[in-house]
Amino acid sequence: MRKAKPWFRKSTRSWYVQIGGRQVPLGRDKEDAHRKYHSLMAGRRNGHSISRVDELFDEYLEHVQRNGKDGTYRLYKHHLSDFNRSIPNKRGHDLCPRDVQRWLALKQA
């Protein structure tokens, strides 16, 4: 198996790393991207990500803000922020479908 390493995508002028078939954005600044990469890989050595869900959402929202429309960004930010309030300080590897089901049930009540 080949080791994941950061690479630069010209079309978005951003750094990425591919992990588990998923392209993870690391940002536009090379040094910052490599720091994020090393932090991400350090957590994976233990078999799981060490990122909190709110950190993952923030990274995703940065990507949407750079590459999407303003309305899309606002909509995603609203829903992700609301969901995140229902699971404070949860780590990504601790997230489960039940968390989403509970949140959706609260939204329908």
Describe this structure in words.
This protein is of the alpha+beta class and 109 residues long. The chain folds into 2 domains: 1-50, 2-Layer Sandwich (Double Stranded RNA Binding Domain); 51-109, no CATH class. Helix content is 53%, strand content 14%. The protein is built from 4 helices and 3 strands, in the order βββαααα. The chain has helices at 30-44, 53-67, 70-85, 97-108; strands at 7-9, 14-19, 22-27. It has a 3-stranded antiparallel beta sheet. Helix 2 packs antiparallel against helix 3. The mean pLDDT is 86.
Keywords:
109 residues; alpha+beta; Double Stranded RNA Binding Domain; 2 domains; three-stranded antiparallel beta sheet; 3 strands; globular
